[in-house]
């Protein structure tokens, strides 16, 4: 999965121009309704991000000049990803930021939001389509996925991911199967897992959003 499939494109992104004054930048970010937005020049070259709180602190706490340039208030000038970046690299980078700017050849193409990242995880859990979400564990890491897929060879697997990577004691796996199973069918499936050496930790029915 690449970022180009997830980004909010440039035309939908509120920005501040790097030549705007502090007063102008504050007016734009206030009108946007966001706490932080990207900063670009007239050619849409990415210059960084600016936070509403830093503008307010500068004006009202530091008694700064409302007509001054915003250069000193810019943040994350070198923090961005490209549209070819992997989802994993974006997931690591976005944790401490309100969003990630997506830049190609210096130009702002759009942003990746936390909502988009969460939508990928929701999809993995089957929240979009609904299904039977099963969390299980195994003490055998090597060959575990092969054994699991053999156990589920007659099932339609909607999603799967692992937790506790690197653990030498146990590994958890979360799988989502298509909806429509009765309680009796789920019990039989749990028995199959247990016979295969898996421990069932939790079973949830996920309704389609």
Summary of the model, kept short:
This protein is of the alpha+beta class. Helices cover 30% and strands 28% of the residues. The strands form 3 sheets. Strands 8-9-7-10 form a 4-stranded antiparallel β-sheet, with helices on both faces.
What does this structure look like?
This protein folds into two domains: 3-118, CBS-domain (Roll); 126-206, Alpha-Beta Plaits. Strand 5 and strand 6 (107-113) form a beta hairpin. It has helices spanning 22-32, 52-61, 87-94, 114-125, 144-151, 183-195; strands spanning 8-9, 16-17, 36-40, 46-51, 99-104, 107-113, 131-138, 157-163, 171-177, 199-206. The protein contains six helices and ten strands. It has a four-stranded antiparallel β-sheet with strand order 8-9-7-10, sandwiched between helices. A three-stranded antiparallel β-sheet has the order 1-6-5.
Specify the overall morphology.
elongated
Mean pLDDT: 88
| Number of separate strands | 10
**Strand residue percentage:** 25-35%
| Amount of helix | 25-40%
Distance between the termini: 22 Å
Could you state the CATH homologous superfamily of the largest domain? Answer: CBS-domain
- Reported by name, the CATH topology of the largest domain is CBS-domain
Order of the strands making up the biggest sheet: 8-9-7-10
Count of DSSP helices?
Answer: 6
Main structural class: alpha+beta
The CATH architecture of the largest domain can be given as: Roll
Please indicate the count of domains. Answer: 2
Radius of gyration using CA atoms only: 23 Å
Main sheet? 4 strands, antiparallel
Low-confidence stretches: none
Q: What is the CATH class name of the largest domain?
A: Alpha Beta
């Amino acid at each position: 999965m690449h970022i180009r499939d997830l980004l909010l494109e440039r035309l939908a992104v509120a920005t501040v121009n790097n030549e705007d004054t502090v007063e102008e930048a504050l007016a734009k970010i206030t009108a946007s309704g966001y706490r932080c937005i990207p900063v670009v020049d007239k050619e849409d070259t990415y210059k960084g991000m600016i936070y509403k709180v830093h503008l307010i602190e500068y004006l009202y706490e530091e008694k700064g000049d409302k007509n001054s340039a915003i250069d000193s208030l810019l943040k994350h000038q070198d923090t961005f990803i490209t549209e070819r970046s992997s989802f994993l690299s974006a997931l690591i980078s976005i944790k401490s930021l309100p969003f990630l700017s997506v830049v190609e050849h210096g130009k702002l193409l759009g942003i990746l939001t936390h909502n988009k990242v969460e939508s990928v995880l929701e999809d993995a859990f089957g929240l979009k389509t609904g299904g039977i979400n099963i969390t299980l564990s195994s003490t055998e890491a090597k060959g575990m996925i092969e054994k699991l897929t053999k156990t589920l060879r007659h099932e339609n697997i909607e999603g799967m991911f692992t937790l506790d990577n690197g653990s030498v004691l146990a590994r958890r796996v979360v799988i989502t199967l298509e909806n429509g199973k009765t309680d009796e069918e789920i019990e039989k499936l749990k028995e199959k897992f247990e016979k295969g050496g898996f421990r069932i930790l939790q079973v949830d029915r996920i309704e389609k959003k």
